[in-house]
């Protein structure tokens, strides 16, 4: 029988046609279900990759910041030597270094070598034997020293095994005075100490990491270790440091395949009911995920860019200005200019910090360290921190604690709570007149602790009260005597931080009669 005559018989009659429709429908729904499962797996991998990339960006920024600690101290020391025309006061440098070594975590030692002979080393204890040593007598170091002399560029090498034990990073910076080579500054940082900070950061995140040194001869693992032979998602970022030192940071997170089988079973069972609806849902959710991924990526890149391109250079500039201010302290005109520069640097850094905090809060990436704290002690510290600022404007800061609030405990992030109080007190001081009193009170109301900041200043115009917590909102003022400097981010940031600590905030004000700000926080048990 011809084949062409068989197919019409197979699909003759209503039953056959219904079977065909059902079969095609089931096949279509199964295909859609499999597509959704594939998309689920792809989305899961994409989300994992995005999270790993976000963690890598933060880890890289943390590593660069930790290493930069030693680099900028070296840059500041080189600038100081140049400002002294190559005749530095080693006693002054020693006292400066003593203070710095007490505040830094990763410095092992710093050596100063005029004419390539080590003349001074800090700290002296345990390093006396290197004083008087010439780099020319050290064949394993002379090549890198000579390269730095020739190119005039600083060079970071490592990690290398240290004679004292452990591994270290060595940062060598040539110093030129009046375009003539003066000598070399060598800073040794504890590599294992830097890696310990990174590993503590990694412990709070998923996945494992590996740090690889990239060289022309090949790659070498210098920290961490990845698992092999298991399904996983990988992400990597290159870390570029001074002197063409190149590292690659890699993170890997395992993929649990069993979840795919569960999803496949569920989708197959529901495919007949939710096939079409599921397809449309997938399409809309896919677009939402793409928009969310783009937004998170942009915020992550913004945080890294601002942190790396603004905060780190600002810290270096402030250090240099501080050294110059100290050097010219006896010159009133120069001291006034350096003081003005320092105040403006602090203002710029505060602005950068506020913007970064807003971005972190929007991206839900601000980690608050909520701990049990005594509220009266925190408020008293905030008042003491701002007494000098109030005193400059001839204002009085007064702390008033009700009897039943003397032992109130709350669960807050200490640093962020002080940031909230600094913002509120700064506003109260800015809009008060000399001789007025700013009262800071603590009250206990049922299961809440209430902090009040009450001033007798100009108050808030009625037309602006509904906007005080808006970002970049600033009230117009007819009083030109007042310094209205600011970005309008302060109260917006305060409200977001209070909400993040499960509290709330309210403002009461009448123009010309002062302002009262109430911050409420839930009481915590002891």
From TrEMBL:
The chain crosses the membrane at residues 20-40, 261-282. Keywords: Kinase, Membrane, Phosphoprotein, Transferase, Transmembrane, Transmembrane helix, Two-component regulatory system. It comes from the Bacteria. SMART domains: CHASE (SM01079), HATPase_c (SM00387), HisKA (SM00388). PROSITE patterns: CHASE, HIS_KIN. PANTHER family: HISTIDINE KINASE 1, TWO-COMPONENT HISTIDINE KINASE. This is histidine kinase. The lineage of its organism: Bacteria, Pseudomonadati, Pseudomonadota, Gammaproteobacteria, Oceanospirillales.
